[in-house]
Amino acid sequence: MSAPSTRSQIIEAADDLFYRQGFEHTSFAHIADVVGISRGNFYHHFKTKDEILDAVIGLRVARTEAMLTLWENQWAMPAERILSFIRILIANQTPIMAHGCPVGSLCSELSKLAHPALVPASELFTLFRVWLARQFEQAGRGADAGALAMHLLARSQGVAVLAQTFHDAAFVQSEVAQMEEWLDSVLPQPVTAEIPRV
After folding, report:
1. Within a 13 Å sphere around the CA of 173, how many CA atoms are in the beta-carbon half?
2. Distance CA 27, CA 190 (A)
3. What totals of helices (H) and strands (E) does the chain contain, helices first?
4. How far is the C-alpha of 88 from the C-alpha of 32, rounded, in Å?
5. What is the DSSP string of 166-190?
6. Helix, strand or coil for residue 149?
7. SS3 of 48, please?
8. Were 105 and a residue from 59, 70, 100, 193 both cysteine, which residue would form a disulfide, CB within 3.0 to 4.6 Å?
9. What DSSP designation does 117 have?
């Protein structure tokens, strides 16, 4: 397997730094130091920080699409796929408590900056919303599938914000359990009791 290109290393480093310290507080120098390249070499690949932001958003969209496809392939039932979304709060609990949700924190920061990249960044939320709505529709909740998707997306974001604020792992575990119970209550055929927790 070939080594990652300098460009891809820059994007990966920027993605991590934008998440951990924010877009506004990350400089070219920060990214160049992580990658271990000169400023001149850096500018060969990206002329502006906005260009890097566009590439980072593209990377996150691609990764989100791949994750949703994985869940589609991994689980036969829509309810199982929705559970994968809910349980991502547990799987990513440590970074969420430290830095929040990578999608929510980026969109919040870009909104405060009135940055034009908020529009493509919000596509990440749209991917989840549309995907969740499709799962609820396939599970038998066609009429209100979109509303259920938005409710679950909003609740998971609220949990992420409070997890970062209070650094309370027990709170995250409790909220995930409540979301699982809620899912059972809204689906025609509850299945969460049959699916092992990760």
Report:
1. 5
2. 49
3. 10, 0
4. 31
5. H--HHHHHHHHHHHHHHHHHHSSS-
6. helix
7. coil
8. 100
9. T
